[in-house]
Structure formats: structure tokens, C-alpha cells
Amino acid sequence: MSLQTPTEAQTAARTGVKPIDYNSSNCDTYLKNKGCIMKPHPSGIADDDKEFYQTLLQSVSDTPKGTVFDEDALEYLNLKGEWKNETGITRMISQLVVPSAEVEMCRGKLQPLRLVESINEPWTWSTSLNLDATLPQPKLDPSLKRLPTPQPDYAVGFSRDAFTPDQLKKLNPYLGSDTENSGFKSSAFQGTEDMLFPFLTSECKCFKGDLHVARKQNAHAMARSLRGVFELFKLAKCQNELHRKVLGFSIIHNHELVSIYAHYVVIENFQAKYYQDKIRGFLIDPSSPDKVWSSHHFVMAVYQKWAPKHLTRLCSAINKLSDPDVIMEDRSTVQPTVLTQQMVSERNSIAMSHEPPLPGPPENSRSKSRKGNY
């Protein structure tokens, strides 16, 4: 799987500046500088959240029959899996490790939840960690150091249908857009165009692939996701509610190993940092056929039990946002640097009590907006 979208590849060819490679130590430095820490915080996850994800890990759900995870087929996977490329591993087991949210909705297993998934789709609507997360942003200056746009093998978030019309109205000033008048703008609240507040990402590798690279890919995507939730709660002036709370999960796997991570926010000195704990790891092994469905059971529990709770949390913050009719007269006036006086005042009140978000590039360094997030 390519780690660059076509737009990024074209930009790299045009400017001579390439995104930081996930294999590079510069990637670790970049993530750390942006507050993404690929290890547990000393204080760890809040006790109530820890207890809750433990119940998720112990959950059991129906599993499909006639798959490569059947006992009589596991030996084949064990013998042949290491010779398969990433596409082969994805075809054989990825949907068994991470069941499709949209398929399960169609089967009536997740009603009335409204989820949306992306499959190897670039998160071009997601704001870069280099830019201010509060308002929609134009494309990132390609000369800045950056990672490739996240492109998870699989990801899940909420569809717009998960929110009421009034809630969408309050979110609208902060969502991305692609219009002829204002050009393309990304949002910290989106992954793909149709996905709001992503909370699950998964990366698959073949035998020759590097699972540590997969971890960094997930860490980057989840840092963007968690930052969006934090910024939402900061706008609602209730960000401290998120301290040490699990706001998403990620999974990495190949043909024989699966690891599950919980991602959470730690707020220190008025700034948010994003940590991760490995909460389960296991082998897909014929000698332990009872374990091979562990990830499937967990993900189904995330959809059925955790996601509704998370949605309620998001909605509680959205409901506290100001009515956009009060803040601005027209949605078309919203620009990254052109705000009505009331919105400026609202943002300043946040900045007075909290560290500002990571700064974007100077205005004069931004080129004309067009679709694509570099």
C-alpha cells in the first residue's frame, strides 16, 4: 500500500519536498513534537475507562462460519500466511480481525447507531497536526515538514446522520468544505468527507512488513482524531472532562500477530498530549483456536457498547457550542483568518486560560487552496 496520496506524490515531484517517511526516526520526532507519545503515560488510563475496556475485551459476539479462522483452516493460514503479500493477508483475514461496521449495521447488529467506514481512503479532509485545529484550514504548505496524509487500511467514525440537525448546525462552522468561492478546507473533526470524529483505525502488514511502522501510521491518524475531540471540548469549555479518557482504539496485525491499542488524552499545563496503551496482544495460532476471534469480539463490543457512549459524550459537548446564527451572519464568511468579532472573542477567552493550539504556517507562506491535505 502506498503511503502517499496521488496529490502528495505530485506535490513531492513538483516541489522536491517529500513527506517524512514512517520508517524514519524523523517520524518519531515529528509525532513527539506534536504531542503524540507512542507509549503509556505514567498515570495511565482513568480507572473507570480501564474497567470499561476490560469488559469490552471479555465480550463475546457471534462469529462468521466457514472462514480461514475455522480450526481445520488455521493450519493453512499458519503455513501459507508468511508467503502472502499485504493484499493477500487483507483478503484472507482483515475483516475477521476487524469486522466491518457498515456490514454489521446492514445486518441489524448495530441499530440505531450510524457509523461510516473508510477502506484505504486518504483522510484528505482531516487537518494536519501542523495547522490550527479550531477552524477549517486550507492545504498545508508543502515545504513544511509533515507526515503523509493518514490513509488507514480501515477506519470507522460517525456519519452525519448520527447527529441531530441542530448539532450539525453548530458543527458546521468548524467542518471542512470544498467550494468554488473559498476553495478546499480541512477540519480537525473529520477523517474523510463523510466521516466525523474517527475513533478506530486498523493497519495490516504482510510477513515482510514492519508492524512498528503500522503503529506509527495508526498513532498519526489517532492523534489527529483525538485532537479534534479535544478541540471540540475546548470550544465547549469542558476539555478537562477528557483527562486520561479513552477516545479511540487502533489495531495492527499481520497473518500471525494482532495488537490492540487504546488511545487517550492527558492534559498537562493546559495542553493535550496523546498517549496509547497496548491492551491486548495475541497470536493467530492453530494451537490456540479460542483466541483467534479475540479482536473480532472486541471490535464488535466497541461498536455496540463503547461507540454509543462516546457519541453521547460528543453530543454533550456539541450541545454547549454557541448557535452559529448568533456567532456569524453567513457561513460563507468563515475563513481561517476572517472571523466575526464574537467568534474572535470566544477563541480569545479559550486562549487566555489554555495554551494555544500548534501554530500553522504564516499567511504569506500558504499557496492557493485546492483539494488535498499535504
UniProtKB/TrEMBL annotation:
PANTHER family in the record: PTHR42470:SF2, VAST DOMAIN-CONTAINING PROTEIN
Residues in DUF7924 domain copies: 82-318
Annotated organism of origin: Aspergillus sclerotiicarbonarius (strain CBS 121057 / IBT 28362)
Pfam families given in the database record: DUF7924
Region of interest (Disordered), ranges: 351-374
Protein's recorded name: DUF7924 domain-containing protein
InterPro entries tied to this protein: DUF7924
